[in-house]
Input
Amino acid sequence: MCSQAVCLMAAELERRGISTAAIVLLRHIAEKVRPPRALFVPFRHGYPLDAPGDPARQRAVLLALLRTLEDPDLRPPALVDF
Amino acid sequence: MSCIVGSLSELSLKDRVFLRGYRWRRIDPVPWSPLRKPLSECRVALVSSAGLVAPRQARFDARMRGGDPSFREIPDGIAMGSLIDSHRSRSFDHEGIRRDPNLALPIDRLHELAASGRIGEPNRRHISFMGSLTATGTFVRQTAPAAAELLVEDGADVALLVPV
Output
């Protein structure tokens, strides 16, 4: 349910002119709900940035998330694999 | 049973049965706001569904039917160790987030990205809510617009959203 709520929040932010990128933990939810820009990560629920106490790994996920904002070829709804 | 990350098999049988029959809320049309300037000049906010609250903030209500649709503002300068996990869900392992709240609300990572020049600056506040929402009507009609309004007021250019 977390992924759905995050997607819905992302849509509202985009309507207000804020660019968004959302992590999703379940691909099929992203496909059904259709957030504007999402990064599917293959991590367990509760571990959206993969590794607690591992700043480098967490940064790597965030950098991938940021790259979705810069990709000129993406069109909504955009779903990218980590 | 083997567990495949990113699939329903990770969840309990009860949760899987519920989710298979659940009517997901489809976003249509899908809004799209491309970046208007380089990320290195953007103010970036975080939005987390991990149910984190700051000290002295009310915890999310675990008993509310359909889920607590409220949200909390988390100041950017908060001590990460002071954040409290009040997410009601038993569908995920809370240990990682309790050990390191950056896992779901990566404020420290945002500051590192700003220091390196990858982003402009962190927003002055971030948004926290409890994503365990089966009834999303109030969330869509009230919570999301109210939270978005705050970030618009702040001049945030980008929001990064993190579920659990």
